[in-house]
């Protein structure tokens, strides 16, 4: 229909034609949207709809869409009809959404569609500026975000308008001379102007300020005048955003706010305050702030109460929240101008950059800032009263709500975090105040409305912690917390570790090592889900305890709390409440309770453990029972004089009946002893300052890691008390595992822990001496003498494996039926002392020929595993324990269970520095593992037996741990990388061939790829003369196939690792690959590269609100997209040249002497004597892929000259058969002229080397700034020409052309900016 329309004869008055066009425009916009939605679907969901788009061959006629799009652009420019602009906005938005969403594999047609927008006629920029509207402004913003050329054209036009400079420097500026934009027009163009500033800062670097300061200066006058009348100004229709009624996630919420016109207005002011900060004096800033707030502080000052919260409309709620967040950001901009410095990272940006400060400490400034703080607090209080608590664990903020409460909940958290930020900024002022009313207001509202919200409690705790250094008294806050109706129930509800048999002594454990459960697969290879409700409750309880500790802790200028004077605070009752909820474990909650109890005793009784002694150290719910019984005894004692012995006997019986010790937990404590625990360890109050308040609280557990462990410090104090008062008999004490804990504590690095252990053993020995001479008592005496005689120094630390041996023996000696009883008993009878320099009974048990030899071997292997730690690595090395185990593993005598434990011992060994180096350098660990993998390859690939999967996972984990050590990798790199290369090759075979293994154990893929990547990185660091690890094209393609299976692709990290491995391998000869396979691979690689890139190269995060960073430093970390483009570029350049000439020395020298792209093209034409025998379809596919990647990077493309060179080699090397040869023939001269301005790609330099980390730089070919901008312009021009040629457009194509760009004068304008700056 559009092809039949003659634009020159069409008039707006022709209603019939205009009506038809309106329908056509609607169809075009809808087609783009539907097609974009189709291309975003997973491959399997696209198949049923392929027939609609005729894409059975994975492509469709994009040229048809492009012709229609360009035709609509021409109609819109000529007749200025609104429905044409709306059609274009829908089309560009659809392509933009499709370009920025790559959750699934890219469709080939997606690559072609992205070029449609680039062909937008240059007149569209002027059309969107002249008589602009909201639709035109949005269209312009999207267009310049997707096309750097259109952005530059917009910049030239826009600055000409601002500077009122309409000299004849381009045909497009003439129509603006008689048309003046209104303030509203400028406001609609603000997002485009902001994009221009972000781009210009990167492109022009230090020349940015002089030529672009007009933009923020102009907008600042308009915005500051408008913000003086905030309510009426932001209520204008132009600031009303249209949001869809779909509920955004919490992260999407702030992205939407940041992308609004009001959000971008604040960002524009940030530019102004940084570049021209001194122009806004203190008086002006305070005047602006006062215009926003009245003298009296009410919640309505910050939150527009006239616009009541509408929980049923996302659009209204989002606009309301947008205004609140913008107002807070503007106030911070006024009152804290020093914050803007962090937006512009430390970089010399030329003269004119001003630093501003409001002179902290000024009474006037402090007063105004306090007013702002009170306004924030008032707004937050009003919101928490209005809003119910939304569960934080919802995947979407409205997962459990049908209204918009979750949106306001996000803004509530945003306000509270800003209160915390202000507290930090005003810290020096606030700590001088005797009273801080807003803190008490926050505390009261939190306890009333957010008592069960751990995140709110965490922020309140951080605020109180910041203020703890000052004179502010926290007594009132403490009274409010303790007086809360739910405080007691919340503490009581803390989960206690289960006790299997309270008060039972008659079933002692017979072994600790039998309870040792060695994990076969690490936690990152298993999927475990904690109970969500229990986790949430745990977080609440932990935050309540941490808040209580902050309130109890005395500040710098405070002496603490006096229980007699601070009425209403009964510290003794609080201590009992905490002790009755204590589990005596190493969980975070129990450690917090322990610290609180210590703090209370320091406050009340100046040290000691009097409260705990009163309870006879009986913790948990038992403490409450004991307290009640003691009260009854006290009442009875006032009436009747009781016999003291009878009272003590009764107390002993009650003690034994309520003993809360669990032998299994004692055993776990012995097996997984916390060597980092110290006797005088206290949780640091200031540790909370290091918490990242932007992150969610990590779920806490009842135990340390997955094991529930007792706190050995408390347990040993408990043991000393129990033995001193004689409540537990020595044999009973041993059967509970308490003696075992004392033994293993002797191996602690902390001398305080060892002193406690020796004290326990001393008390235990005294108790033994008072017992009757029974056999079990005599055996325990022999055990004590056996250990005591081996100790040579006071408080000597004994090896952990020896300590664990003694702990295990203490229990076995009580069980005469135990299979190792006779052997251990004989050892005590024959030996008077333990040898601290060897593992007891290792060789006797490991090489045993007894009837129960297998049980003895497994027992000693468990002992070796459990007793291995860093401090005792010398013992394992000196006694050749590890070599013995490795030799036995490969012997015919080894069994499956022994092999698993040996691999676990090796895994634990490589986590220790000493043993890791010893195993790798002295024991040939990698060749040994390679031989094992070679065996597994045969078993798994032929029989696919499942029994070896555990050993395979352990081998991979061992390798992964070893190569994570910098010292070991340096040794491998210089001396023995061949060992790792051999092992990696075996892993690769499993990866690409073990389909069933991969399907059943998806977690195997990630670590294997990690090892391959590490090997390639080490290989890159080696010298040229050393062997290197390389992978062929077939091997890399097999890696792609292995991770692109549907059942594996669920793990996005695996795809990223696979792509990294492929890129690390360096450029490939892609012209030898099958075209269909290569196309499929490039689609997969592009999708994953785009998924891996940062969401925005110019972003930072402040209080949940995303603000753009405009520093070039932010883009120094290269994205995966850029790496992929560099890899593809190098592959094409090397591949094309290898086809056109041989690799003789003379040819290499000739190529290295080439200086420009023009000389390279002439060289290729001269050498290509046989003609072009390659597939043009392949080269066109590669060219399209490169253009798509380059468009995705925009101005951040670091290797644009090389990209253009590769494209030229693909499309211009043979004019007679090149794509769009008719089109290119007319531009032959101009094309060669452009090529003469572009340097020869550095990939031709003989010294060039592929680097995954960053592009290779040739220091010998540095360009001046003018040469650099000329080369950039030539690259952009040639890229545009090649893109048009790739589309096969005729010479009369009406889309963007090189002639249009030249006529616009934009390149001369950008060159003039640099020339002017250099002259100045």
TrEMBL record:
GO terms for molecular function: helicase activity. The keyword Membrane applies. GO terms for biological process: maturation of 5.8S rRNA from tricistronic rRNA transcript (SSU-rRNA, 5.8S rRNA, LSU-rRNA); maturation of LSU-rRNA from tricistronic rRNA transcript (SSU-rRNA, 5.8S rRNA, LSU-rRNA). Keywords: ATP-binding, Helicase, Hydrolase, Membrane, Nucleotide-binding, Transmembrane, Transmembrane helix. Pfam families: NopRA1. Residues 739-928 form the URB1 C-terminal domain. The chain crosses the membrane at residues 17-39. InterPro entries: URB1, URB1_C. GO terms for cellular component: nucleolus. This is DEAD-box ATP-dependent RNA helicase 32. The lineage of its organism: Eukaryota, Viridiplantae, Streptophyta, Embryophyta, Tracheophyta.
